[in-house]
Amino acid sequence: MEQIFNYKSLYSFFLVFFMSIGITLAQTSVVDQVGKAMKAHDASSITSLMASKVKINIKNQKGEYDQKGAEAILNNFFKNYPPSSFQYLHKGNDSSVQAYTIGRYKSDKGSFRVYVLIKDGKIDTLDFKEEG
Predict the structure, then answer these.
(1) 101: closest CA among 83, 86, 118?
(2) Which of 1, 49, 74, 132 is deepest in the core (most CB within 10 A)?
(3) Would you say 7 and 27 are in contact if contact means Cβ atoms under 8 Å apart?
(4) Contact 26, 33 (CB under 8 A)
(5) pLDDT for res 11
(6) Which of 36, 76, 83, 63 is nearest to 127 (CA)?
(7) pTM beyond cutoff 0.85
(8) Residues 83, 105: contact at Cβ < 8 Å?
(9) Around 48, how many Cα atoms within 13 Å sit in the side-chain half-sphere?
(10) Is 37 helix (H, G, I), strand (E, B) or coil?
(11) Does domain 7-130 bear CATH number 3.10.450.50?
(12) 81 neighbors 112 (Cβ within 8 angstroms)
């Protein structure tokens, strides 16, 4: 009788499948945690979710920063623009290792469209664009 399944291939398929589900769930968790931290203007919680180097674009500060530098920039932003609200407008995945979100951060001093790129379960890019 001929073997229909190659068990080694089947094992590899399920291993990759479950690993990609795990990465997607981790990214969803990061997205939820970022949203909560934005509402609470909690820079420390956001930076704990970042990769060792992160690309940031906030007002006049644009570059790649380590977590300590990123936290200082976020603290300064939150101090100058305390949040009145934060909500996600869109969440998406473009692969099993990359997710992105677009949100709106509102302060009494202005409104910002926030783009967050998550790679391998860590924040890779954080971009605040002032609206209107």
Answers:
(1) 118
(2) 74
(3) no
(4) no
(5) 54
(6) 63
(7) no
(8) yes
(9) 8
(10) helix
(11) yes
(12) yes
**How many Cβ atoms sit within 10 Å of the Cβ of residue 61?**
14
Cα-Cα-Cα-Cα torsion 45, 92, 18, 9, nearest 10 degrees, comes to -140
Six-digit token string for 67: 């977590």
At 2, list the tokens: 């001929």
The encoded tokens of residue 109 equal 């001093």
Quote helix, strand, coil % in the chain, to nearest 5. Answer: 40, 45, 15
The pLDDT value given to residue 10: 52
Which amino acid makes up residue 11?
Answer: Y
Per-residue pLDDT, 20: 47
Residues of the chain whose pLDDT is less than 50?
A: 1, 14-15, 17-18, 20-27
- The residue written with tokens 């379960």 in the block is 121
Report how far residue 33's alpha carbon sits from residue 47's, in angstroms, rounded to the nearest whole number. 11
**What burial class does residue 28 get, using C-beta atoms within 10 Å of its C-beta: 0-12 exposed, 13-18 middle, 19+ buried?**
middle
pLDDT for the residue 97: 62
Give, rounded to a whole angstrom, the gap between the first and last alpha carbons of the chain: 70
Both structure tokens of 70: 């990123």
